[in-house]
Structures are given as C-alpha cells and as structure tokens.
Amino acid sequence: MRFTSRVLRDVRVRFAPSPTGRLHLGSLRTALFNYLFARKHGGAFILRIEDTDRSRLVPGCAEKFEETLGTFGLKRDESPMVGGAFGPYTQSERGAIYAQHSERLLDSGHCYRCFCSSERLDILRKGALRAGELPRYDNRCRSVSKAESDERARNGEAFVVRFKFDKQNVAFHDLVYGSNNQIADEGDFVVMKSDGFPTYHFANVVDDRLMAISHVIRGAEWLASTPKHVKLYEAFEWTPPNFVHLPLITRDGKKKLSKRDADAYVAYYIEERGYLPVAVLNFLLRNGSGISGFQPGNLYSLDELIQRFDVNLIGTRDFMMDRSALDTYGRLAFRSTHRETLLQNVAKHLKTHASADIDPALLEPAYIQRVIDFISSNEENFAAFDELVTGDFSFFFGRPSSAAKLLERFDATTALTICDALLELERFDIAGVKAVAKQLKMKPKEVMAATRCALIDSFKGPPLSELFGFFSDDECRTRIQFLKESLKEGSVSAKAS
C-alpha cells in the first residue's frame, strides 16, 4: 500500500523524546524523517516531551533537545518553547487529561484498578522466571467489583490502572513494513501508575489523538508495542493514525548501536568531533532511504532533502554505521558551506576545545578565516573541526610544545645548529632553507624536514612552501625560537643529570 496525502494540511507528525539524557543518534534520525515528511506535505512538525518516567529525568534536557533540533535546522511548528493550540506539549503538565481518559476506560470496562502490592508482583515475576515463562500479571484484580474498587480508591488505597489485554491476534498496516499480524500475549498492562502518572503507551495514544497526529513515525523497535496502541485506540473507539516504522541504526547490520558508546549520541558528532550539521543529516540518509533520485557521494541541502523525500521509498534494511562515509560528507559539507557560517562554527568549536594556554592571537576571527581559506584551498581530506584541535591540523592553533618530535630524527646539537641557521634568515622560503642546507653541508630534504617539524611538530603535513605561504615570517621565527629554547633547556637538564 502506497501513501498518498489527500489533504496536505492534515499532515501532523511529532517527535517525542524522553528527557533522560543526551539525544541519541537514532532519535535525531527519527526527528529528521518526521520533519522531512511534514515539510514535504505542508504539514506540522511537533516536538512533544514525554517525561512521565520521573525517576530518570535530567534537568535542562528538554531545552537542550529543542536547541539541538534548531542546530540541525529542524524547525518546530509546535513545542514546549514555541507553544501551540494543542498544548501543553510536556506530558507532566497533562495529568488531568490522562486521569480523565483513564476514568473513561474504567467506566467502559476496558480497564480496572489493581491493588496488588509491589511485593506480590515481584513474587509473580520471580516465579515466572524460574518456570522459564514471560512475566505477566495474573489478572487477580479483574474480579474486584466496580463498587469495591471505587470504595478502596476513595479510602486512599494505592492502585494502578490496568488495561484488559487478553491473548489475541492484532493486525495493523505499516507504511514501511506492510501488513503486520502479531500474537499479543503480555497480560493486562498498566496504563496509569500509582504515582498518578501515565505509562508511555497510554500517554502516547491519548496525546497522539488529542494532538491530531496523522502519522506516527518512529523506530522499528516500537513495532512490538504497536498492538497495545491499536487496542487502546479500539477501546476509545478512535481511528488509529498511520504507522511508519523506521529501520534501526546498527554497527554492522546486526548489532544495535549501544547507548554505552560515545558515538551513539548527537553531541559526539557536533560538539566533540565538530562535523557540520548538514554532513550528519546526509550521513543518516546516506543509503537513499526515502530520497528520490538519491546519488551516493552527493551532499543534499535540507531543502533538497525535503523536495526529494518520499515515504514510499523508505526501505526495511537496517542502517549501518560507516565512519568513512561520514568523513566523505564532512569534507563535502566543509567545501560547500558559506565562509561566514564556517567561521562561526570553527570559532565556537575552538572556544570550547582549544587549549587554555593558546595564544589569543590565534583565536582572532581574521586568523581563523585564514586557516579556513588555507584548508579549503589545499586540504581535500579535512572533514571535522576537531582536526584543528587534536588532529592533523592542530598546528594552526597550537605551537610545538617541546622538541621531542624533532629529537626522534636529529641529535640535539644538529637540531640546535639548524635552528640557529634558520633564525638568521631574513625571509622564510624554500630558497632560504636550501641555502641553510648548503651552509651546513646537509641534504636539503633533511633541513626541510627539520624546518617543517619546528613549525608544526610533525615530519608530515602540508608542503613546506604552503606553510611558508601561510605563516608570516614573524610566526615562523617565533616557532623556531621556541624550539631552540626547548632544545637548550633539554641540553642543560642533560648536563645537570
């Protein structure tokens, strides 16, 4: 069955994360698909915060989610910060709504109060596990009459509200995975907890209905829970939304991306590694899932992704991580992003990650722009800003801290002699280095290697001619002088010992 939008303005989708920690990469991917679908069909993209699990809340997390969506250009039409006609958009502020709807299901006989203690439930769970069975409630409180249930509740006895969920076949259609038939056999599940907060499944269904959500777009891990949602819709006599489940993110097509791994979270890519947001978005869609006319190796803007998006093209193959592909998109993004935007992003990354003892002059916008221009013109493999801090290009924002690297190839006396000769040059260029080599009766390539190491603390890197073109004569002299002092200090220490 293919999706055809009959009334575009009726398309309403939501991204509904729980504020329990950092935003997962899979969550960003889910938000992206929701956003593309909404914009493609002229609909609304809504952010809803599902914070009913009060024990796991992280303060400030919800606000960070909104900030992150903004970083990626995923503009919300309705959200806790933006507002909207269907709020509140934070579940903890919707308690009266859930209480009203649970009462409705109690009155209709689809739900009942369960007064069983946590100790009794724990005994049931352990007994099932010992027997090798799936733990489930034994429906003991189903037999409690409505009158007795009401009386016990009035007397302040603690209870949860359970939904009657007998073993049955539940059929539903998914726009990605097609016809789905599942044997649901989990027993009566809780919809309202003893603390008065709803469970995820109950709040999810109530909110989607009251917020007029037309399509539920979420990860495939929720396929197994969909029968619960379908039966809740039936109990309320509501028409379910369209379901769109997305393939999972995996390491290798089998192993799910672990929450213990740093690269499972969005912050790793943007804040730690410094990839541009458009590179990450393209990476998440790199197999062309949902993108018409997709061309591998092409960088698409967010507007282009919207224009090309087609829900009927979403495949069922799990997404696999591939760092080389991410670096490809990182390189493409760096070369296609406006200079002013690059400057802002690089400056922000350096402000957060640069060494505390860095020369402030190296953080001036004019100098940062020169670095960007140099890399754009000379380095095809630059992909992420952390390469300016800890990677191959860290020499731009940090001078060599010692002579250790130089001494891997030259003895201290030779190194000092080279530094002294270089410091006598009026101008730093290839001709001058060759003149020093001739003066010292050394091979030019050896003096060039020592000069490069003095400038960038590495024997590998850009050609020396490019480094001379970038660094001023004063900066070259400063770096070589620093190395000379380091060599002299090392010699004094050696003699003292």
Automatic annotation (TrEMBL):
- Tell me which UniProt keywords the record has, alphabetically: Aminoacyl-tRNA synthetase, ATP-binding, Ligase, Nucleotide-binding, Protein biosynthesis
- This entry's Enzyme Commission designation comes to 6.1.1.17, 6.1.1.24
Q: Name one GO molecular function term.
A: tRNA binding
Is the keyword RNA-binding assigned to this protein?
Answer: no
Q: Which CDD domains match?
A: GluRS_core (cd00808)
Q: Which reaction does it catalyse?
A: tRNA(Gln) + L-glutamate + ATP = L-glutamyl-tRNA(Gln) + AMP + diphosphate; tRNA(Glx) + L-glutamate + ATP = L-glutamyl-tRNA(Glx) + AMP + diphosphate; tRNA(Glu) + L-glutamate + ATP = L-glutamyl-tRNA(Glu) + AMP + diphosphate
Top-rank taxon, per record: Eukaryota
Q: Where in the cell is it found?
A: Mitochondrion
Look at the named UniProt entry and state the broad enzyme category this protein falls under: ligase
**InterPro entries assigned:** aa-tRNA-synth_I_codon-bd_sub2, aa_tRNA-synth_I_cd-bd_sf, Glu-tRNA-ligase_bac/mito, Glu/Gln-tRNA-synth, Glu/Gln-tRNA-synth_Ib_cat-dom, GluQ/Sye, GluRS_core, Rossmann-like_a/b/a_fold
Main subcellular location of this protein, as a coarse class? mitochondrion
A GO cellular component annotation here is: mitochondrion
**Domain named Glutamyl/glutaminyl-tRNA synthetase class Ib catalytic: which ranges?**
11-327
Q: Name one GO biological process term.
A: glutamyl-tRNA aminoacylation
Which family does the similarity line name?
Belongs to the class-I aminoacyl-tRNA synthetase family. Glutamate--tRNA ligase type 1 subfamily.
Protein name, UniProt field: Nondiscriminating glutamyl-tRNA synthetase EARS2, mitochondrial
The organism is: Panagrellus redivivus (Microworm)
Q: What is the lineage of its organism?
A: Eukaryota, Metazoa, Ecdysozoa, Nematoda, Chromadorea
